[in-house]
């Protein structure tokens, strides 16, 4: 049979092999090879690679073209396929007669553009790990603009796709750009990677082991588990960048952090420590982020300073009941070396800096971190958690890098002591949500509809910052688009939506019995609910066959898709299962608490007071396999939920509140007696109101003369979220009626858009206006929009360091102008530019009771200052104006000074660090001359010279009101400073 016929006959198989994974990578690799071999010309390539078109269509187009091009092309095409397809995909195909000569063409190329084409496959692989640097080189050479760089770097593309986009762009730019890329690659090769620099190769056995390890890591990480039950989705296709931030402020960090920064030097707080913590909420994307790192490493695209990477899941380590040495832990849990185990382990001991461990979900480990039990000997056996804790603190295998993920609640001070740095994973940014939805839906019109419906429901949009919720919303797009008015508002609504979605997908239309969907599946809900509930009580997330049996879970229940088979559990067990996500387990536990006849009456009160959990024994007596018996006895004595359990209990309690909301009660009508339901609602309301009172009672009395202020204790935001889930304003009103504070401080409380929605819902019922301090959270523009309903009750709003842009400010001020109480705002360190100043200007003109405006450390220039001045001219109330750390300069200062010249209200003005020179200082002297209110003027860190200060001194001669003018760090000599201090004591240098 000719190769041409072979291509025709195997058309379906080839198409499936190329496209069935859903990833375009294989097809694109084949195209790279055919371009390089000259079998396709550039126009062919463009006809096949039509952006936005279905992958299968592109595949078919390629097959048609290859076939019509004849024998030789078909032979090369088969050879390319053979090279590109992983063995599993290529196994069923016949390649006989295919051309084996696919060597890169080495002959002389007349142009660099041509070289880019003939070396395309290897260039793609070389470029994908250094896209940013290659783009930098192109920007420096003037061949690329930053907008073009952004186009290449679109987060929806995988690194190899970004490399191809880069090459395609370069081609359209011509010879000079092509030369830059080739030179860049050459320089990079000459300087070599750190491994090459050592001019050293590891022993052969270690290399073999590395290959085995990386292929196993790659196989484990290429698909996302949440898609396991529904459709296969490769990580490459769906992975969307989450927002990463350092937990500790760091001056040398500009712009967002990337994956490489997790192990890079940036933000290191303890050079001695080896462990990096990635913390974030449940469903925030921690496991997925680790999975991405694993995949990139296994493919050679990132973390190439590490020769061996050992991934661990704490959830799986929970099931290890034996005592193990570190060697056994590595080899038995990650990858077994076929030979020379001792040599390989010795290599690990000798080269710790080449080894990386990752531990996913430290919060799911049954034992809380402690550094009491020291273990130093790598051959000594110990319980797995002890080995793990010693690795983290560095007493075992010092120098080996570790990345640990956890929810923040489970990270205590003892662990913090041993951290090299902490990185916070904040979920998706607004553009991340957009990108994820587009990746999730291959049909762009569906994606656009989903995004449109999210824009109209900002509460839901806020929820989508959490990747797991974004996934649910995308998964349930049909329900979402169909539900109009009743569109989901709360987290419970979203989980109910997926519950219904899964049930309806699994039920064939014939089986409908006239019952509503929940009634029809009540048994499944109760079986899975019991499993989830018992599991939460026992910190158990992986369930064996007998566990399922104990809870009555049947094969049919499993088929519904909420449980997935656990990867990597040792084959001595029968099949093991876990819930799609831990939040799903909490949701089922909540369903069980709400619907079951078998929970006792103290379950709800105990759930809302996790600290009493053990005392009263919510913890399960099932699941003997989950817990070693010694551990059980130990824990029974502890009398408290561990730090690791509390977050799950809190999530469960939040769902219980949501499920008992009036809005959902009709759902339960046929599933549970009304009287029981009502009793449970009363119980939850009582718990929430008691919880709130407890908080309020803990507020200390104010010192005389000061305002009564409350700093939120852990758990306050959670209670607020529970109240929001109930969606009953009566409860919110009742909870807030007893809060008597002037200032509510919620700094560093991990408040994102979701929390803002809940806060606004509850705080709007406060009786008296408060100052709301939300500094150092992740409110963002969406969060700001969520806060609008409680603006009327805020007299001051502190939103320092919250990722807010001009757009957020526009919405905030449009509402703020209408709120009589709203008088102060602090927005230090956000992302504001001149585009927001017109709104402030309007506010200042309109609101003649506005007192304080602080806009420090943003990006406001002379233009913005001029806009502000327009408003200030007409304002008679502003007392505090803070513009520290902007770029206002002399011209901006002059505009402000002229607007404030006759102000009778201004008390305090800061223009620290604004490039203000003497011209600006002289203009400010005019305010001093006239003002009867100004007390302090801050001009530190500017470039004022003697001339400017002379103006200020002269003005002060006519003014007795001003207390001090701060002039540290300006352009003055020591002698000048001495002389002028003597002339005017109110100047501080
Ligand atoms: P965590 O470990 O923080 O609880 P996961 O990583 O398990 O969160 O994320 C939950 C789900 O959210 C994933 O199964 C996936 O569907 C989705 N998801 C999370 N992060 C991403 C991401 N970066 N890109 C695409 N989807 C993501």
Automatic annotation (TrEMBL):
It is a lipid-anchor. Keywords: ATP-binding, Cell membrane, Cytoplasm, Immunity, Innate immunity, Leucine-rich repeat, Lipoprotein, Membrane, Nucleotide-binding, Palmitate, Repeat, Ubl conjugation. CDD domains: CARD_NOD2_2_CARD15 (cd08788). GO terms for cellular component: basolateral plasma membrane; cytoplasm. InterPro entries: CARD, DEATH-like_dom_sf, Leu-rich_rpt, LRR_dom_sf, NACHT_NTPase, NLR, NLRP_HD2, NOD1/2_WH. GO terms for molecular function: ATP binding. Pfam families: CARD, LRR_6, NACHT, NLRC4_HD2, WHD_NOD2. Belongs to the NOD1-NOD2 family. This is NACHT domain-containing protein.
């Amino acid at each position: 049979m000719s190769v041409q016929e072979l291509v025709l006959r195997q058309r379906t198989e080839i198409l499936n092999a190329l496209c069935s994974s859903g990833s375009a990578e294989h097809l694109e690799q084949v195209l790279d090879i055919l371009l390089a071999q000259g079998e396709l010309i550039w126009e062919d390539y463009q006809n096949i690679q039509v952006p936005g078109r279905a992958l299968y269509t592109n595949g078919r187009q390629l097959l048609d073209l290859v076939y019509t091009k004849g024998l030789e092309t078909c032979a090369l095409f088969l050879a390319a396929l053979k090279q590109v397809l992983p063995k599993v995909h290529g196994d069923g195909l016949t390649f006989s007669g295919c051309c084996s000569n696919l060597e890169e063409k080495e002959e002389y190329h007349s142009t660099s553009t041509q070289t880019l084409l003939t070396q395309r496959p290897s260039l793609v692989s070389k470029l994908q790990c250094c896209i940013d640097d290659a783009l930098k080189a192109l920007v420096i050479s003037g061949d690329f603009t930053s907008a073009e760089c952004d186009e290449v770097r679109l987060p929806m593309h995988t690194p190899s796709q970004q490399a191809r986009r880069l090459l395609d762009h370069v081609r359209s730019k011509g010879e000079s750009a092509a030369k830059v890329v080739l030179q860049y690659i050459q320089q990079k090769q000459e300087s070599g990677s750190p491994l090459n620099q050592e001019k050293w190769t590891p022993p052969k056995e270690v290399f073999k082991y590395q290959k085995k390890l990386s292929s196993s890591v790659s196989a484990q990480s290429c698909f996302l588990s949440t898609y396991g039950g529904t459709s296969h989705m490769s990580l490459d296709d769906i992975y969307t960048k989450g927002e990463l931030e350092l937990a500790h402020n760091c001056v040398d960090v500009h712009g967002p952090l990337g994956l490489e920064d997790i192990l890079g030097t940036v933000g290191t707080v303890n050079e001695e420590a080896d462990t990096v913590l990635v913390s974030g909420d449940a469903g925030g994307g921690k496991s997925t982020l680790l999975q991405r790192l694993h995949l990139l490493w296994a493919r050679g695209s990132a973390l190439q300073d590490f020769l061996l990477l050992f991934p661990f899941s704490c959830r799986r380590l929970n099931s290890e009941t034996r005592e193990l040495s570190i060697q056994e832990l590595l080899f038995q849990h990650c990858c077994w070396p076929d030979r020379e185990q001792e040599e390989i382990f010795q290599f690990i001991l000798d080269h710790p800096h080449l080894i990386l461990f990752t531990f996913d979900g430290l919060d799911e480990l049954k034992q809380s971190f402690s550094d009491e039990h020291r273990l130093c000997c790598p051959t000594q056996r110990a319980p797995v958690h002890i080995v793990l804790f010693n690795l983290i603190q560095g007493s075992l295998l010092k120098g080996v890098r570790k990345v640990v993920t956890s929810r923040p609640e489970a990270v205590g001070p003892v662990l913090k002591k041993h951290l090299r740095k902490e990185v916070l994973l904040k979920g998706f940014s607004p553009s991340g949500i957009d990108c994820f939805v587009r990746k999730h839906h291959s049909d762009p019109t569906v994606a656009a509809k989903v995004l449109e419906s999210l824009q109209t429901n900002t509460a839901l949009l806020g929820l989508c910052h959490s990747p797991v919720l974004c996934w649910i919303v995308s998964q349930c797009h049909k329900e979402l688009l169909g539900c109009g008015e009743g569109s989901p508002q709360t987290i419970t609504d979203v989980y109910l939506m997926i519950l219904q979605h899964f049930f309806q997908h699994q039920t064939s239309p014939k089986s409908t019995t006239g019952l509503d969907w929940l009634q029809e599946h009540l048994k499944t809900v109760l079986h899975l609910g019991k499993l989830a509930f018992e599991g939460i009580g026992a910190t158990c997330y992986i369930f064996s066959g007998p566990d399922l049996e104990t809870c009555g879970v049947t094969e049919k229940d499993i088929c519904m898709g909420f449980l997935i088979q656990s990867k990597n559990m040792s084959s001595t067990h029968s099949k093991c299962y876990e819930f799609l996500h831990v939040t799903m387990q909490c949701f089922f536990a909540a369903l069980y608490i709400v619907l079951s006849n078998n929970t006792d009456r103290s379950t709800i009160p105990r759930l809302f007071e996790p600290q009493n959990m053990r005392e009263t024994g919510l913890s399960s007596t099932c699941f003997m396999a989950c817990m070693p018996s010694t551990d059980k006895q130990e824990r029974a004595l502890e009398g408290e939920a561990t730090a690791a359990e509390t977050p799950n209990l809190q999530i469960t309690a939040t769902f219980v509140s949501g499920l008992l909301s009036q809005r959902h009660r009709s759902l339960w009508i046929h599933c549970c007696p009304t009287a029981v339901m009502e009793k449970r609602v009363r119980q939850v309301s009582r718990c929430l109101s008691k919880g709130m009172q407890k908080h309020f009672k803990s507020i200390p009395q104010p010192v005389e003369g000061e305002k009564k202020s409350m700093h939120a204790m852990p758990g306050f935001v959670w209670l607020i979220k529970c109240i929001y889930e109930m969606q009953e304003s009566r409860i919110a009103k009742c909870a807030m009626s007893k809060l008597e504070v002037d200032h509510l401080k919620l700094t560093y409380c991990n408040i994102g858009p979701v929390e803002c929605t809940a806060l606004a819902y509850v705080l709007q019922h406060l009786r008296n206006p408060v100052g709301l301090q939300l500094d150092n959270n992740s409110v963002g523009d969406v969060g700001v929009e969520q806060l609008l309903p409680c603006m009327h009750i805020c007299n001051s709003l502190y939103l320092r360091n919250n990722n807010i842009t001009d757009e957020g400010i526009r919405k905030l001020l449009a509402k703020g102008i209408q709120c009589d109480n709203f008088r102060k705002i602090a927005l230090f360190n956000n992302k504001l530019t001149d585009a927001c100043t017109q709104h402030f200007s309007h506010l200042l003109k309109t609101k003649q009771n506005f007192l304080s405006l602080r806009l420090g450390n943003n990006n406001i220039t002379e233009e913005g200052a001029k806009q502000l001045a327009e408003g200030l001219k007409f304002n008679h109330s502003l007392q505090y104006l803070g513009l520290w750390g902007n770029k206002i300069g002399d011209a901006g200062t002059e505009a402000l000074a002229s607007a404030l010249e006759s102000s009778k209200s201004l008390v305090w003005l800061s223009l620290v660090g604004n490039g203000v020179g003497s011209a600006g200082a002289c203009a400010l002297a005019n305010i001093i001359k006239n003002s009867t209110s100004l007390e302090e003027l801050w001009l530190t860190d500017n470039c004022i010279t003697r001339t400017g200060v002379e103006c200020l001194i002269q003005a002060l001669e006519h003014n007795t009101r001003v207390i001090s003018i701060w002039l540290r760090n300006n352009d003055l000599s020591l002698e000048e400073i001495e002389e002028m201090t003597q002339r005017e004591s109110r100047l501080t240098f």
